[in-house]
Amino acid sequence: MSEKTENVSSQIFSESARAKINLYLHVTGKRADGYHLLDSLAVFAEACDELLYEPGDEELRLELTGRFGAPLGQDAAGQNNLVMKAAAMVQAAAGGAAKVPGGRLVLRKELPVASGIGGGSADAAAALRLLSRAWQVEPDSEALSLMAEKLGADVPVCLDSRAARMEGIGEKLSDAPALPPSCGILLVNCGVAVSTPEIFRRRDGHFVPRADLPDAWPDAQSLAGFLSLQSNSLQDAACLVCPPVRDVLNVLADIPDNLLVRMSGSGATCFAIFPDDATARQAAYSLSRNRPEWWVWGGGFC
Ligand code: C5P
Description:
Layout: H1 3-9, E1 13-30, E2 36-56, E3 61-65, H2 82-93, E4 102-108, H3 119-134, H4 141-151, H5 155-160, E5 164-167, E6 172-175, E7 184-189, H6 196-202, H7 220-228, H8 235-241, H9 244-253, E8 260-263, E9 270-274, H10 277-290, E10 295-299
Parallel strand pairs: 3-4
Antiparallel strand pairs: 1-2, 2-4, 2-5, 5-6, 7-9, 7-10, 8-9
């Protein structure tokens, strides 16, 4: 084992993988390969999965734990898992698996799976960050972005996990306008996994123009006012494929003080915007008592 490896072998490394919310999502066109062109504003909540890495001599392996990880079982922790695919890319950047330690990755999944808040993409991005740090591979940001892009359209935005405008198929990132100093979000998932390719297939064929973004939103009301003029092009298709999405949207719309209600990504997770994070947390508390079968989270975003 190299000296470099010995230095890291006693440490445990960790990264959080935050939930990504598409505040609006316009399908603006379609590429020849079938991928859709998007314009979307993505923000990140503190709700997250957690990825731990304990270096060791044995071949790298992944364990899944947490509310949504344990039920998936070890079948989901093989080489097809996006975290393991990300690990293989960082190994390759280091010159091969033999050049870096193996060990144990533990993914504590607290975000619902296949739910439109980028859990799998955030896990993959966390693996790229975590293992390049632990193995001291340090690819430049362009190389890291390329790896992310190969892992999925939503992975690049999850590398930085802060508000950004997504274009292209999701990989073209630019700065988001300044977000309001005070604003809260409530996330709700009804527990039905939704297939992204199916939702894209089932959406109506309309294309929606790119949004005209301001420089900043001074308060939550102005953000919500702007968002009310935008849409999620995948929401109607998701309501058809997964009718409980409509129920969640209706329940969110009835919560006092909400400023806007919408679905994120290809669903099924929906969100409501509130004037501040304390109001969103209070709404989450009440809703989780009334609907214990739903996954509910409230707080701030960035
Ligand atoms: O890139 P990712 O693997 O996350 O995409 C999953 C699927 O979602 C793609 O295979 C494609 O069917 C659909 N998709 C799309 N346009 C995008 C992103 C995803 O059609 N911009």
